[in-house]
Amino acid sequence: MARKEPAADAANPGRLKQIALTYKMTRKADKKIGLVLAGVGIVVFGVLLGIGFLIGHPIYLGILGLLLAFLATAIVFGRRAERAAFGQMEGQPGAAAAVLDNVGRGWTTTPAVAMNRNQDVVHRAVGKAGIVLIAEGNPNRVKSLLAAEKKKMNRIVADVPVHDLVVGTGEGQVELKKLRTTMLKLPRVLSGPQVTVTNDRLRALGDLMSNMPLPKGPMPKGMRMPRGGNPRQR
């Protein structure tokens, strides 16, 4: 037991440091985060304490109010931090790949299955909803990338539904912060074994990530594809 205490003590400062760093990053995009959190905590605590005085148990309700105030503050902080993070990622090349890494269990994601010299890119996700192609970049240019990928899908897995999504804020596009939710709302039409078979077939296609040393997440803004366009379109 004595050996576990130093490890626990070392972990706590790490968590506090991470929370502080997250707060600083969130505050850059959300200037009112401090006031909002303070307001939420005070209101929740004040309401429970007031009820405690009314029913004659201010101590019990005060303790409960303190706990609920902390919980409510944590929830609000998490949501606003997530919103700020998506706001900073919005528009960056490869941002959708970072979201796909956390889309949830049951999905197999492959970033950058197609790309052109202008950094327009298509990612692929396979789950019980079928195949989902996620494009980010110029809405007009990604149409050709999506069409080429859907044509390949039809040759390899013609019996599997293929959905296509374009990440962006324009009409008919999906906002980055809503990408995960949109994918999870797609109707489930495949069983677990069918998903496995689909992944095995698509794995034979390969992807750009297996041919190029690309980093995960948002790609450097200065990065350009070599002349010749998409190496998979031969």
Automatic annotation (TrEMBL):
It comes from the Bacteria. The chain crosses the membrane at residues 33-53, 59-78. Residues 208-234 are annotated as: Disordered. InterPro entries: DUF4191 (IPR025445). Pfam families: DUF4191. Keywords: Membrane, Transmembrane, Transmembrane helix. The keyword Transmembrane applies. This is DUF4191 domain-containing protein. It comes from Streptomyces coelicoflavus.
